[in-house]
Amino acid sequence: MLVSSTFKNEEIIPTQYTCEGRDVSPPLKWERISGAITYAIIMEDPDAPGGTFIHWVIYNLKTNELPEGIEKKERTQYGLQGVNDFGKTGYNGPCPPKGHGYHRYYYNVYALNTELSLRALKKVTADDLRDAMEGHVIAVGNLMGKYRRD
Q: Tell me, what CATH number does 136's domain have?
């Protein structure tokens, strides 16, 4: 189970975590899973006009908690970050087209039985991460928040 202290599952994501606010990652916490060596998070919007849009890729997390505002660089003290569908490293929050209604944003956390080695790749995408995680996922949790721009 994945939770945030700033919004509950299926609630509205506060503006500060979106493109209309400070665009920082929200604080997240999940239960420790027995046998997990690392955790990974992929944040995605399945309601994007062009298909599922990736907002965040972070992996090799050793802890089960992230504070607000993870730095937008590849290497952080918490783990490694890949590139999102904005073409940027790190977190970029909800930013649906104006007047498009509510979009759902899934923060998916994966408990893995290994540390991933993706060093050969310059920019790790969500697909790269999913490929690397194959056969190593021992548990999955998610938190879904909603956001719209008028």
A: 3.90.280.10
Edge-to-edge strands, sheet with 38-45? 80-81, 53-61, 38-45, 103-112, 137-147
Domain that holds residue 43: 2-147
Number of domains forming the structure of the chain: 1
C-alpha closest to that of 142 among 19, 18, 28: 28
Q: What is the pLDDT of residues 2-55, one digit of tens each?
A: 999 999 999 999 999 999 999 999 999 999 999 999 999 999 999 999 999 999
pTM for this predicted structure? 0.96
